[in-house]
């Protein structure tokens, strides 16, 4: 083989593109196409998933953003694909020309050579033909892959169109619902306006007149009832005064009659001492001297007794050792007797002219409190455990069906259920506030002397607590009281 021919063949072979001798370059082109295809498929799948789980508004916003991004990506992929196609077509043309020229050169060389070199050329020609077939197959595969990429792009476009159609449909439905709601609101507003129009000016005037008449009638009724109530109060107050005067006269006559009886029984003996005060619940009885021969009250000692109307027994009232005594509810219906121990050793005695009368209206008042389940009374603590309380602030005595509680706000001084160890009675120590005083022993080792706001409140508190204690089969009394007899 001439050296010039070998040089030509070697120069043509060297002039061939480098990728004709490197199959790795063809694999890299394939991987590029596959990567773009996977990217397009992944974006399409993510778009479909988002379309299924987003609301109409979110889907609209995100779809529009994703569509813009997808369009940009699709344009980029299309540009890269077009560029790659142009390069590939150019490369294919170069490959075909090289293969054709190479085959022609080898054929021409085969005609010039012989023997072993000719066989080598024959093998080279076969290798070129095989390479041409492989190249053709690879180009066919690449064409199929490009067709598949085009199908995926078409699917992506179809999915985008479908998603856009769904968004438009959802938007249309929402718009229709909004319009329907607006129409309903307009109907309601029109109905309300029509209802307002029904109330004509005459009807409104008539309504205003009725309101004025009702207010005037209410005002007249209140004025009438107020004046009527005031008249009744004045009448009741007048009757109370007349009754008090009559009671005073009766008590005076009763005392005079009792004094005459004693004088008839004891001779013409002069009475040295006498009880003063109304003999009914809510007052204070006092022992006063009636004669100059009587010893000074301050030098005498006293003891009060409770005697039933039939005179069956005489009960000593423990603690009642002062010249004054305020009857309590236990004393109603009984005589009160006081023994006066003179400095000379002699004993004088005074007694009520009749049984102690109840306080008017007290029993009915207590029954009302019982029906309410209890009551609260304002009190001041004078003595606690026998010691004087310097700061006598206002407290509350709460009496109900199960217990008695003495407290000030949230601070509890004593709170005890009814028991056999509890004692409660009127104050027995005398003094100006004896008729308002109340002695309470909640439990052993604790005592209180309380002063209520009025005599009526004090007696109501005693009666109310005793009525509630009886429900628990407990009889409340004072120190050393004979409860089974008093009950």
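-> sequence recovered:
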């Amino acid at each position: 083989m001439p050296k010039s021919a070998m040089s030509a063949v070697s120069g043509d072979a060297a002039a061939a593109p480098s990728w004709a001798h490197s199959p790795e370059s063809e694999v890299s082109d394939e991987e590029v196409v596959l990567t773009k295809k996977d990217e397009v498929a992944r974006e399409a799948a993510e778009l479909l998933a988002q379309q299924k789980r987003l609301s109409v508004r979110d889907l609209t916003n995100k779809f529009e953003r994703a569509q813009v991004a997808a369009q940009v990506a699709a344009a980029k992929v299309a540009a890269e694909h077009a560029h790659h196609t142009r390069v590939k077509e150019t490369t294919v043309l170069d490959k075909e020309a090289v293969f054709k020229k190479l085959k022609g050169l080898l054929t021409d060389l085969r005609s010039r050579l012989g023997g072993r070199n000719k066989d080598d050329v024959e093998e080279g020609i076969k290798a070129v033909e095989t390479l041409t077939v492989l190249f053709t197959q690879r180009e066919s595969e690449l064409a199929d892959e490009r067709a598949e990429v085009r199908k995926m792009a078409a699917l992506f476009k179809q999915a985008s169109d479908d998603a856009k159609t769904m968004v438009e449909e959802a938007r249309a439905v929402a718009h229709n619902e909004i319009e329907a709601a607006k129409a309903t609101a307009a109907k309601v507003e029109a109905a309300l306006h029509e209802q307002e129009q029904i109330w004509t000016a005459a009807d409104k005037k008539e309504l205003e007149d009725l309101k004025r008449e009702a207010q005037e009638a209410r005002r007249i009724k209140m004025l009438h009832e107020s004046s009527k109530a005031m008249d009744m109060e004045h009448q009741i107050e007048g009757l109370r005064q007349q009754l008090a005067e009559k009671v005073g006269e009766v008590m005076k006559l009763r005392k005079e009659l009792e004094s005459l009886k004693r004088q008839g029984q004891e001779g013409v003996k002069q009475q040295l001492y006498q009880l003063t005060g109304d003999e009914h619940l809510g007052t204070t009885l006092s022992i006063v001297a009636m004669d100059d021969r009587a010893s000074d009250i301050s030098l005498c000692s006293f003891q009060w007794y409770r005697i039933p109307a039939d005179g069956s027994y005489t009960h000593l009232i423990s603690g009642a050792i002062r010249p004054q005594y305020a009857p309590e509810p236990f004393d109603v219906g009984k005589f009160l007797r006081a023994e006066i121990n003179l400095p000379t050793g002699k004993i004088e005695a005074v007694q009520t002219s009749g049984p102690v009368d109840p306080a008017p209206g007290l029993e009915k008042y207590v029954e009302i409190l019982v029906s309410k389940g209890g009551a609260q009374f304002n009190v001041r603590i004078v003595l606690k455990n026998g010691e004087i309380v310097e700061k006598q602030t206002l407290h509350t005595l709460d009496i109900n069906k199960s217990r008695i509680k003495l407290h000030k706000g949230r601070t509890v001084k004593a709170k005890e259920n009814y028991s056999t160890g509890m004692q409660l009675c009127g104050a027995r120590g005398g003094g100006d506030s004896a008729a308002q005083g109340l002695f309470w022993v909640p439990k052993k080792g604790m005592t209180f002397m309380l002063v209520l706001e009025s005599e009526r409140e004090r007696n109501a508190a005693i009666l109310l607590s005793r009525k509630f204690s009886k429900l628990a089969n407990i009889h409340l009394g004072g120190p050393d009281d004979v409860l089974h007899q008093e009950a």
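Residues 1-30 have pLDDT under 50 and may be disordered.
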